[in-house]
Amino acid sequence: MKFTIKVDGETYEVEVDVAAPEQPQPGFVPPNASYQAPAPVAAAPAPASGADEKVDDESKVCRSPISGVVIRVDAEPGQSIDADETLMVLEAMKMETVITAPIAGTIKKINHAAGDPVKVGQVLIEFE
């Protein structure tokens, strides 16, 4: 193939050979060994939520609004309490959450002590 090229007012005649297109080369050539990917591992089942706990009367329990750790229990079984009285304190991510009585009544059972981990929806306290 011949071309005529003009550079700074001077004319040049150029002959160019056309090369065959190169074959694409892979970016990575694996060694002469076969590779078999490992079989996928089944995921572990999710832990059960505390909200699955069955109770006879939902109005007579106090459930955890958060996942955390009980850091203080301010009530005891048999104690008479008023609505909105502090029952216990939970901690999650360095934040304290005060758990108050949803109803006035008498405490039947406290299901968790200081230091116990709790999940969302777990029954913390049962009332008579």
- Determine Rg (CA atoms, Å): 37 Å
Q: Unreliable segments (pLDDT under 50, ≥5 consecutive)?
A: none
Pattern of helices and strands: EEEEEEEEEE
Helix content: under 10%
Biggest sheet descriptor:
4 strands, antiparallel
- Strand arrangement, major sheet: 3-10-8-5
> In what range is the share of β-strand residues?
35-45%
The helix count comes to 0
Report on the architecture of this protein.
This protein has 128 residues and is an all-beta fold. Helices cover 0% and strands 38% of the residues. It has no helices and ten strands. It has a four-stranded antiparallel sheet with strand order 3-10-8-5, with no helix packed on it. Strand 6 and strand 7 form a beta hairpin. The protein is rod-shaped, with a radius of gyration of 37 Å. The model has no long low-confidence stretch (mean pLDDT 84).
SSE blueprint:
Elements: E1 2-7, E2 10-15, E3 61-63, E4 68-73, E5 80-81, E6 86-92, E7 95-100, E8 105-110, E9 117-118, E10 123-127
Antiparallel strand pairs: 1-2, 3-10, 4-6, 4-9, 5-8, 6-7, 8-10
Using brief descriptors, characterize the structure shown.
128 residues; four-stranded antiparallel β-sheet; mainly beta
Brief sketch in words of this structure:
The chain is mostly beta strands.
